[in-house]
Amino acid sequence: MTYDLMTLGRVSMDLFSLQIGAPFSEIKSFDTGVGGSPINIAIGSSRLGLKTAALTAVGEDMVGNFVIDFLQNEGVDTQFVTRKADARTGLAVLGIEPPDKFPLVFYRENPADVYFSIEDVKAAPIESTRAVLLSGTALSRGSARDATLYLAEVASRTETTLFMDLDVRPDQWAHPLAYGLNVRTVLPAVDVIIGTEEEFYSALSPNPEPIMAKEPMNEAMHKELNQLVQAMLNRHPEKVLVVKRGAQGISVFRDGDVTDVSGFPVEIVNTVGAGDAFASGLIYGYLQGWNWLQIGRFANACGALVVTRHGCAKAMPYNEEVQTFIASKEK
Question: Is the pTM here over 0.90, yes or no?
């Protein structure tokens, strides 16, 4: 196989507040990085030891140069990162107010990554890639939607394992119903689906408006979510659904079985990027042939480590760090 993992979706230059705890209006300076869930997963997987490549697009601008250099320095293959002349590379600005406030502002009025196309996918050797990761946000607009659908179809015809990070970003959709309507067109082709409870509810429920409006889940919604998950597994028993439940850990649903894996209690510095680190660890463990308890514990450890650190892509752990962290918790 040429690659262990390819990821398709959004990318940005990220600016992280260096004044931890300061309100957004009082930020004085920033640290730079690269973000976008699929890109963070490519970086996190590379740090764990997988051979990864990014399928995305940047503008013909200096920010695009920054992104490509960053990825290359992280060992992510960028030969399939295309340049789009009439668009700018995306930007995200983040405040850090632990433990539970991380205000995030996207600048994605005309981001280059939404123009990643079917022709761009055709240039990538999908048939010789062990796994592909799709992202929900890539379905929101532009030719990236067609590229995602095409990649899902190609991967489903090969031995490539298809993962999907549900990746709900409500402000990237024109209507609250649009997210689920689009995601549900892809899910039948996906082998392993990863998301929070809120993301699964948005993807599977016919009435996701409260979640897309960023309202918290209530008891009735939790009950409905369990029914929606079971209904999907009844239709597609071969699929694996990995539901992230925050500090409680995760639940892995597959073929009539549920594996619950507890999380690791840590002091929160910054939660942004923790889900991407989790996905990196999950894909790594899956490709090693581990059982779901081992996979979940390793993935939870990856996410826990990022929560304790400043930054996002820069905070992704290396394999040895994860193994050391897990060993320290088992003493």
Answer: yes
